[in-house]
Amino acid sequence: MTSRRLLAPFAIFATLTLWAGPDAHAAQEPGAPAGAAATEVREQTDPLREHGKATIKALLEKLKTARDPARAKALRERLMRAWTASGPASAQALLKEAARAQADGLIGTARQLYDMVAKRWPEYEDAHFRRAYFLWQLGRHEAALAVLDGLLKRSPGYFPALVLRIHILRAEKRWREALKACRRLKTIAPLWEEWEKRCRRMELRVQRDI
Fold it and tell me: Which of 144, 178, 193, 208 could form a disulfide with 132 if both were Cys (CB 3.0 to 4.6 A apart)?
């Protein structure tokens, strides 16, 4: 089976808006095809990856104290690149294989690859995020939230996980939980005008429901 629309996992790193319609996670899950292939690539020295954690920590501190929206946006973009680059080259290559399999409708193969990368490299944030994003696309909201909760426990500053968490909770109409995540997002990634507006609207909705 194929989905009506299967969003590329990489798209969230370009926009991080995630306010698409219901078709965004309309993928249906067939049985896993046999012989899922994954190609290992030779690890290469990458200074950003070798010092990735220190780089990410420094960028997060700068983001929290940013006073200009343009500066904050630039720091968010640098952080997303740093998180991706912090993983081994093999992990990055396998995630690309998973995305290609997903785009081709090979959902079983994609699932195997996302699961494998997350298990083999448990400290690689992108691996868990992309796995959660994939589960969300399959409509497995609780499974996606469980992955995101574990990710945020290990890496509290990983704001892409909060963005996806808010979106899922909003789709489930769990407004109070979504608002709580929104407030947390604002402390980690301030001066994000788009999300500040959405958080304000969500807060008004919660207040109306009291």
Answer: 144
pTM: 0.77
**pLDDT classification of 49: cutoffs 50, 70, 90:** low
Single out the residue of 87, 88, 78 nearest to residue 56, CA to CA: 78
Give the mean pLDDT of 198-209: 88
Distance CA 12, CA 159 (A): 12
Residue 5 structure tokens: 């629309």
Query: What tens digit of pLDDT does each residue of 90-121 get?
Result: 999 999 999 999 999 999 999 999 999 999 99
b/e map 118-138, b = 16+ CB within 10 Å: beebeebbbbbbbbbbbbbbb
Check residue 33 and give its pLDDT. Answer: 41
Computed over every residue of the chain, the mean pLDDT equals: 81
